[in-house]
């Protein structure tokens, strides 16, 4: 059984899925603007909500830092840019793929 964790690398706009210490998959992401930066640190996925509405695309995965999450987007052109209010945006098909693989309580490290 895989032992997944997530690393979000803000410097290269990538979310990496790791099994123990081996990168299994990388996904491009959009991150927070200069004024509303994505917070760095250690967090956990605490919930998953399909079809959350608004700008969150097809899925929301809430982080243990209140009001922050990993989610889809209805604006795919925002991926690879600093455009969010601090959340991590993914292409809808990518966030769906990730959500199937990672359970609640998966560790998420966000690094500068």
Automatic annotation (TrEMBL):
InterPro entries: LD-transpeptidase, LD_TPept_cat_dom, Transpep_catalytic_dom. Residues 4-111 form the L,D-TPase catalytic domain. Pfam families: YkuD. Pathway: Cell wall biogenesis; peptidoglycan biosynthesis. The active site is at 71 (proton donor/acceptor), 87 (nucleophile). Keywords: Cell shape, Cell wall biogenesis/degradation, Glycosyltransferase, Hydrolase, Peptidoglycan synthesis, Transferase. Belongs to the YkuD family. PANTHER family: L,D-TRANSPEPTIDASE, L,D-TRANSPEPTIDASE ERFK_SRFK-RELATED. This is L,D-TPase catalytic domain-containing protein. It comes from Paenibacillus marchantiophytorum.
